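Renewal narrative, Specific Aim 1. Our central claim is that a sequence can be written position by position from structural information alone. The example that follows is taken directly from our test logs and has not been curated for this report. It begins with the structure tokens describing the chain, in the order in which they were read.
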């Protein structure tokens, strides 16, 4: 007997894909082929190309192994981006069988793909599209190249993963920014009067209002072309306009490009910096020409065309006379050795240090243990009083022990993760927390989840990603800009982790920057992944054990 086993497999987060997030069983049995098979012989038959049938292909049985455990029905298995199917069959008895071929396609009887399996009796076909029906068949061929007729055709529809059960596939929801954990089938995020489930069935995009007018491109006000600006300039546009009554300015996307090499050095989409933005410190280099542009986005998600490009030149930074990336008044002397390796920090290329609190304390950034960071381009400590009143938002620490630390790292590849070590001249007090500051949206958030203190609390390992969490320039460009502060939590702020080990979950003090990648919530599937086959046997045994025990208890009680 020849049989096929089909398994769907989630390649992103889960072992199985299906309409439930647990395991799933379905048996399908097909009738045997009625035609009598023709056995292959050494003599070439008169008719080839499907004129033969092998006895081993007389019957094709397909089944889905699915064991339903009720508690798994509420567990999340992750969004499926691809699925696979595994086919297996009995080996043919003919001695001159050389191997097998599997054919499949998305139309019955029309097979667009052929896979030669050799003399194996199973194969796995990958990258199947969820929701699409595939048709499979198989043939055998002998040592003379004779090939059997097609076996019975087996249709298989790749199931969707729909964690919240709202009829919308998880990967479709993720593609358009919807939440695969929330039933949002009847919501209408683009305001076009068509619900998400109707958009899905119609094959339209749920976040774009088709009858919406695209807002006009912005006009740049400041700086004017070829203006000389400081290295943290303010960019200003005209006011937003939209021809559709009731539409409003939802976001603006800002972009700055280095004129010389045309690399994007800054990109930020903000719902607060709509017509003006102050570029964070250390993003721009001194004495360099940059091109900037912006576009507006309305409340339906429709973006205008980019504005015409503006041009400006940054002035020479006179606070860094030697050009080593550290303000002259914050330079440390030859007595500073924060990493305690016996060599003054100013004589080493893999560490930069600055004086803070009028020289009574020092803080440094080291890349000695980092395998992805090429260099520390700049480092400075900013006085918290210079941040302005608009930085006094919820979650701002009462005290910043070393000021707001700004540093700039050059990494090997765009998107690299970097681990740097920050050295302190004095041990960090217990209860002190590392904060990430967003200078555009003026928000603070606990960053302890990405930090780990040493035992003496005089150094801390910090994890940041180019273009991800901890990078203020907002783009994967091989450069990481990080404004960070070691502070004492505000007495009016919600409770936060103590930052002692870096293992506690971070508590977001205020509205988080949506570009920040947070660690995933605890997923029970990760705890049980790999032991599903054992559980398939253990659960029935447990059920039997409880049933037997219940009979014993019944006899004891009655």
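The sequence written for that structure reads:
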């Amino acid at each position: 007997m020849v049989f096929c086993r089909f398994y769907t497999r989630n390649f992103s987060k889960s072992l199985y894909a299906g309409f439930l997030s647990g395991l799933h069983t379905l048996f399908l049995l097909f009738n045997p082929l009625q035609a009598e098979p023709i056995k292959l012989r050494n003599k070439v038959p008169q008719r080839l190309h499907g004129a033969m049938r092998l006895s081993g292909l007389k019957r094709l049985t397909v089944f889905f192994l699915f064991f339903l455990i009720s508690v798994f029905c509420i567990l999340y298995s992750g969004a499926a981006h691809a699925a696979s199917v595994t086919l297996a069959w009995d080996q043919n008895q003919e001695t001159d069988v050389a191997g097998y071929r599997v054919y499949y396609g998305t139309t019955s009887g029309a097979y667009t793909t052929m896979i030669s399996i050799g003399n194996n009796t199973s194969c796995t076909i990958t990258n199947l599209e969820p929701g699409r029906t595939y048709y499979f068949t198989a043939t055998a061929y002998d040592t003379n190249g004779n090939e059997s007729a097609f076996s019975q055709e087996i249709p298989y529809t790749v199931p969707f993963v729909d964690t919240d059960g709202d009829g919308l596939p998880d990967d479709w929801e993720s593609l358009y920014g919807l939440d695969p954990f929330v039933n949002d089938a009847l919501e209408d995020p683009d305001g076009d009067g068509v619900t998400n489930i109707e958009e899905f069935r119609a094959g339209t995009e749920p976040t774009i209002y088709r009858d919406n007018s695209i807002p006009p491109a912005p006009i740049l006000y400041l700086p004017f072309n070829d203006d000389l600006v400081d290295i943290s300039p303010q960019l200003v546009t005209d006011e937003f306009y939209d021809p559709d009554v009731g539409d409003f300015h939802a976001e603006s996307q800002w972009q700055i490009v280095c004129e010389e090499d045309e690399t994007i050095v800054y990109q930020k989409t903000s719902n607060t910096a709509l017509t003006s933005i102050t570029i964070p410190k250390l993003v721009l280099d001194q004495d360099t020409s940059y091109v900037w542009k912006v576009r507006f986005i309305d409340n339906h998600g429709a973006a205008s065309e980019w504005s015409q490009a503006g041009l400006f030149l940054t002035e020479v930074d006179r606070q860094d006379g030697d050009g080593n990336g550290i303000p002259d008044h914050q330079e440390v002397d030859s007595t500073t050795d924060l990493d305690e390796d016996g060599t003054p920090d100013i004589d080493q290329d893999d560490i930069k240090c600055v004086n803070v609190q009028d020289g009574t304390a020092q803080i440094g950034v080291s890349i000695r243990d980092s395998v992805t960071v090429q260099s520390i381009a700049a480092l400075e400590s900013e006085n918290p009083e210079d941040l302005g009143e608009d930085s006094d938002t919820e979650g701002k620490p009462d005290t910043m022990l070393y000021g707001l630390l700004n540093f700039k790292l050059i990494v090997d590849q765009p998107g690299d993760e970097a681990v740097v070590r920050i050295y302190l001249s004095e041990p960090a007090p217990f209860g002190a927390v590392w904060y990430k500051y967003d200078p555009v949206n003026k928000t603070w958030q606990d960053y302890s989840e990405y930090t780990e203190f040493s035992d003496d609390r005089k150094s801390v390992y910090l994890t940041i990603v180019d273009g991800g969490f901890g990078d203020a320039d907002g783009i994967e460009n091989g450069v990481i800009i990080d404004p960070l502060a070691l502070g004492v939590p505000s007495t009016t702020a919600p409770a936060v982790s103590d930052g002692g080990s870096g293992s506690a979950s971070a508590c977001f003090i205020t509205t988080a920057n949506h570009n920040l990648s947070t660690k995933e919530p605890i997923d029970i599937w990760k705890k049980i992944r790999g032991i599903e086959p054992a559980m398939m046997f253990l659960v029935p045994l447990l059920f039997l054990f409880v049933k037997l025990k219940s009979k014993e208890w019944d006899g004891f009680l009655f």
